[in-house]
Every structure is written in structure tokens, then in C-alpha cells.
TrEMBL record:
Record domain Tryptophan synthase beta chain-like PALP: where: 28-335
GO biological-process terms attached to the record: alpha-amino acid metabolic process
Domain of life: Bacteria
UniProt-listed Enzyme Commission number(s): 4.3.1.15
Cofactor annotation: pyridoxal 5'-phosphate
Protein name, entry field: Diaminopropionate ammonia-lyase
Keyword line: Lyase, Pyridoxal phosphate
Amino acid sequence: MEILENKHIEDIKPTFSQDAIGFHQQLPGYTPTPLIDWPVYASQHHFKNLCIKDESQRFGLKAFKSLGGSYAMFRILCKRNYLNPKTTSFDQLRSMDHHDVTFVCATDGNHGHGVSWAASLFGCAAYILMPKGSSEARRKRMERKNVQAVITDLSYDQAVQKASDLAQENHWILIQDTAWEGYTQIPTWIIEGYLTMAQEIIHQMTTPPTHIFLQAGVGAMAGGMIDAFSRVYPTTQFIIVESAGAPCLYASMNQGKRTSIACEPTIMAGLNCGTPCLITWPIIQKRANYFCVCEDDAAIRGMHVLKTNDMVAGESSAVTMGLLDRIVKSETLRNQFQMHEDASILLINTEGDTDPFFYQSVVGEDRCLII
């Protein structure tokens, strides 16, 4: 594990709108996902409390990403039809004919699944590219009427570029969950969709968190959460957690600028991204307190620990629990992260068993973890 402390924390100005929750509340099956208190774990490890937002229950899709894809699609279709998103309802937009609209994106799984689901709600088509080594189980979950998902022989960053090229060639709409020069509006809407999760957490929390752990690939979700939480929790410490296979935020922080890196194999497919999101990197650079790089064993540890609390967590989500479990068992690390007896910790379980076969291979009945 590698740890980098940001010793130059700066205040940030709000970047993203928090209006998306009004749209999400209109969707079929919407209900706030639970914020689960785990007092036993906190007591055992001598800190105040641990809360975990469980996004494995979001819209029956097992991941938070549907919040971003659905809201961005709503905003895109409103703009395409010259409608005011503040006065247009989901039912109004769904009643219109969008059969000639095709969305395209690259994904390791969860973003594509959210785009597929949203396309089915609005009656659109979608074409989804997955990087080399992606899970066949995740690919199959995306396929619906008028939605095609394919596993390519490309890296994640190459798949993003390919999706962009296909959008231009075929007059499709690129709906990608990261941003770069010349492509920022749609990723902004996606991140604003994620902030529904933050709004729910703020309403559900009874104690301001002292530490928030945020897993990160390109950093879109992490940066959005920091933007939202900093408005109400100005003294909270934010801990960015990345896979050792693709620590692009850690590398960027080390270099003092947004930096692309080559990705290495990791079980944390959702975090295996080599280039930070353009619009959230400045937020993370200024306001994240720590950058932690974890090996796959941290994700496996987290999956097992959360299972003891009857929580199903996928590998890209559980790494934060694995890191926390290591910190609280080390006096040196606890002191480094200022995690004392008054600590109130928030984790976000961003995905459940989106690949059930892999999940069972890690935490099935015949598997155990030696702590």
C-alpha cells in the first residue's frame, strides 16, 4: 500500500448543480438507498461510528452508476427536443418518440449497465464497448432490446476513444462518464446525477463524518462527492482509494498535474482507468486529504469483512472497507490518518455482486479469509 498526504488543502467553490434528485424521484422504483450503521465494528475497533451507504440496492441494478447515466440522458433528450429540464417531467419526455437516438459509451460494466437501463426507459438505442478482459456476466446484463454490448481487445482509455470515434462516424451521442478537453457538458450532467447519492446521505446522516473514503477510477464520482460534501462538512477528511493497477490520481498528485498512466491487470475493473477526469481533477487536487493505492488483496479483504455484516460488495467497492480494516488495526496508520476514538467514518458501497460468479469465487461458502 502507498499513501500520499495532501499538505496543501484549499477551499473549493461549488462546481456542480444538485437538482438531479428531483428527476430521479420521478423514476419507477426510486427510493433512497439505505445508510447502514455498523456500531459493532466501530466498537470493536474503538472509534465512534461507521456508516455505509449501500448502492447495491439502487434501482435493482446493483450499482450507483445509473444515477449519472439516466440524468445525463434526460438532459440530452431535453436539449435535443428544445425542452426546459426544470419544467419537463420524466413522463412527458418518455412519452415522446426517441427511437432514432443511439447512445454510445465505453464501460467496464456499471456505467454501461446504467446507460442500457436508461435507454430502455426512454425508448432509445445504445451501443456499449467494454475493454479487454471484461466480465461476460457484466456484458450480458447490459443487453436489452435495441442495446448491444461488446467486449473489445482495447484498454479502457482506448475503448473510450473508440466510442468517441463511433459517435462521430455514425451520428450517435457519446455519453461517457469522464471528461477531456472539448467534452465536458455530458460528463458534468453525469456527475450531477451522482449527487443524488450525496443528497440522500446528507439527509440520512445524524453525525457529520470526520472521514469519508472514496474509491476512484477517473475520479468523477469521488470529485463529485467531495464537491457536494464540502459544502456541509467543511472539516471532513477525504481519502481517495485507488487500485495499484491504475493509480492515475495518485500519479497526478505526485506530478502536480493531471497525468495519464498505463494500466496493469487488477480485479478492480471499475477502478482500472488511466486518465483522471478533467472536470473533477481540480477538486480532488485541492480538497482530497489522502491518496491511497491498494493491491487486490485489500478489495478481497473488504468483500469478506462486509459479508460479515450481511452486505454484498463488489471488488471495486469493497477496497475502501479493506483499507479501513487495515488502518484501524494499526496504531501507526490510525495516527497517520488522525482516526481516533471520536472518528465518524463514511463508506459508500458503490456496487454489489455485479459479477455474481466472481463474487462467489471470492466469498463463497468454501472460501475464508485469514486476517
